[in-house]
Amino acid sequence: MATDLQPVIETAPVRVARHTLGHDLGAIKIVLHRELLRFFYDRTRMISQLVQPVLYLLVLGTGLGSLVSGGGNVNLKTFIFPGVIAMSVLFTGMFSAGSIVWDREFGFLREMLVAPVSRTSIVVGKVLGGAVVATAQGVVILALAGLAGVPYDPVMLVLLVFLMFVGAFTITAFGVVLAARIKRMQSFFGVMQMAMMPMMFLSGALFPLSGLPGWLSLLTRINPLTYAVDPLRHVVFTHIHASARLKARFNPGVTWFGWHVPILLEVALVIVLGAGLLAVAIAQFRRTD
């Protein structure tokens, strides 16, 4: 005998967390914490990213030091020390941004994107995490200041850490912009090398910005990393004992058509650029699948 009884399906109510500022701040904290854990538990990455800056400082600085005459405690190592700090921050910040591509390949990024948090908080957490990691790596290089004839002045160290964080934030935001649309890690490494090497060599990290040919001088002025390296060098040379002639030679500063660009303006340019790149990264992430 046929029956009209049908199974009754009961559905449990699902409660989605309300979107609040505190919710977003919590998401930023979690993403930031994850970036820190990923870096500090990866000893191989930590050590490998120290090798290149240390080689530049100790081997290149010592090897070519006899070709560049300084005076007193100022030599080629003193000159390139701020540039080596910038290089360390540059490489670490860009590699940290590459974690987005890594997460995409292994599917973790999709899990984060479907989570009930705003994509803005994910991007901000990634950039802050990369900036903190890159600054920490720069602090390790900063500990080698004595080997370059740079004193451990507390005021100088605080200023350098602040400038490193500003530069690291901008570089990481730039890396996130690049990583937002790249699907494979191999492609990201290729793009990253293509972007990093010209930025590094045209920043004045390894040579003074005065007396350059016109075409090279123009390229250094339009390179954003120039305005991150020059304040670092200015702070270092303000706190070392050297003649005015040597300081003018090794720390000529940046000029625009003969006008000396103030250090505060250079720092402001880097901050504004970092905020702009962060906005671009957020816009790209909102369109990411």
Automatic annotation (TrEMBL):
It is found in: Cell membrane; Membrane. GO terms for molecular function: ABC-type transporter activity. GO terms for biological process: response to antibiotic. Belongs to the ABC-2 integral membrane protein family. It comes from Actinoallomurus bryophytorum. The chain crosses the membrane at residues 54-73, 79-102, 123-149, 155-180, 187-209, 259-283. Residues 44-288 form the ABC transmembrane type-2 domain. Its main location: membrane. Signal peptide: none annotated. It is a multi-pass membrane protein. Pfam families: ABC2_membrane. This is Transport permease protein. One of its GO terms (cellular component) is ATP-binding cassette (ABC) transporter complex. Keywords: Antibiotic resistance, Cell membrane, Membrane, Transmembrane, Transmembrane helix, Transport.
